[in-house]
Amino acid sequence: HSTKRNSMSGHSKFNAFHVCKAVDQTLNPLLDSVKPSKTMAFTDLATSLKERGVDVIGLAAGEPDFDTPKEIADAGVEAIRTGITHYTPNTGTSALRKEICKKLKVDNGLDYSPDQIVVSNGAKQAIWQALLAAVSPGDEVIVPAPYWVSYTEMVRLANATPVVVETTSDEDFLLSPEKLRKALTPRSRLLILCSPSNPTGAIYPRSLLLQLAEIVKDHPRLLVLSDEIYEYIRYHPAEHHSFAALPDMYERTLTVNGFSKAYAMTGWRLGYLAAPIRFAKAAAIIQSQSTSGANSISQHAAVAALKLGPGGGKPVAQMVEAFQSRRDYVVRRLQAIPGVKLATPPGAFYVLPDMRNFFGSGAAAEGYGSIPDSDTFCRYLLEKAHVAVVPGDAFGAPECIRISYAAAIETLEKAMDRICKALDPAVYTLRKN
């Protein structure tokens, strides 16, 4: 009888489970305002086509095609073989934070102590934690456009409001003092600057940064998040200037940098925040309750990276030289296409050509149909030319597309041949003016 009662009890519970109402699948309302990354979307589309056997050239993702320099990779292997495989302190190993302080002093003229450094799982995490530490619900964050795709979405996730300020190619995609001043309100809390810039490759000259700093000084609540992840990838005679090194800006600036781009360490996932102690401690608390410290192997390898010398030493210089050759080639090919507007960018490894003549009223491709916007234009290039690039509206520049030239020159030659063929006037009709 006991067995029978237990069996019936189990059956009763089973039926109860199935007759209950549907599970509430409500999501956090903050997600209603957050868009998925188009960079990832087009990269995923390209990957899907490749898996089906299509010869797709991917110029969407911002990732160097080089292997991590041998000195760095060897240090990672050494970490594995010698047992440097355990948890590290939440904010990073002492050895790495000390090396970061040395780098900031030598390359940027900045004096930080190790307790002002928070090492994270990539620069993206460092930016996210800096935002969470600095902004409050209702605060405004000024984001010059074109911008990296995640800035505005991170601001929304932090329950703050992105204030997008347009810049144009005629302004070299640089925020002017006049536009900054006009965007400021009593709710302004943070200005995000990225130099060298993703997606434009623009670099802020010191003279313009000083003008922006004078405006920042007049607003007691205003901080600056300076994203310097592309610092080493710049082309002569362009120079890099850290915002925190400007007069009176040290206490107002949250500097983010990392190892992914310059050292070709995207898969190692390592970045850092350098900030006034109050903000560094706040970011450290956030990290301690989310991911904890970055992995020990990457941190050991990063020490070796920083020991390559100022500017990343010879390995980085060689990569930058290759990037410059690739930039020059891609710019030359694009500028030769009637209807394309593009200046030569001084940094990073992207071009953001103005392609407005290729979509809108009357624009169409033979065998494909009308091309109303940059999103459709990029899908056309992917489906017909088998080249993956990213629509400019993802970066707040709907008249543009972003092309990464972080690929071998042979790959870029093939990609540009395909793009030129797809845009040939014999098969492509420009928009009506």
Structural class: alpha/beta
Helix content: 25-40%
Largest beta sheet, briefly?
A: 7 strands, mixed
Rg measurement, Å: 24 Å
Identify the strand order in the major beta sheet. 2-8-7-6-5-3-4
| Number of H/I helices | 13
Strand content: 5-15%
General shape: globular
DSSP, total strands: 15
Main traits of this protein?
alpha/beta; 39% helix; globular
Kindly describe this structure.
By secondary structure, this protein is of the alpha/beta class. 39% of the residues lie in helices and 13% in strands. The protein contains 13 helices and 15 strands. It has helices at residues 2-19, 38-51, 70-81, 94-108, 123-134, 149-157, 177-183, 206-217, 277-288, 296-306, 313-335, 374-385, 409-422, and strands spanning 57-58, 117-120, 140-145, 161-166, 188-194, 223-227, 253-258, 271-274, 350-351, 364-365, 369-370, 387-388, 390-391, 401-404, 428-429. The strands form four sheets. A seven-stranded mixed β-sheet has the order 2-8-7-6-5-3-4, with helices on both faces. Strand 10 (364-365) and strand 11 form a beta hairpin. Helix 5 (123-134) packs across helix 9.
What is the secondary structure topology, with strand pairs?
Layout: H1 2-19, H2 38-51, E1 57-58, H3 70-81, H4 94-108, E2 117-120, H5 123-134, E3 140-145, H6 149-157, E4 161-166, H7 177-183, E5 188-194, H8 206-217, E6 223-227, E7 253-258, E8 271-274, H9 277-288, H10 296-306, H11 313-335, E9 350-351, E10 364-365, E11 369-370, H12 374-385, E12 387-388, E13 390-391, E14 401-404, H13 409-422, E15 428-429
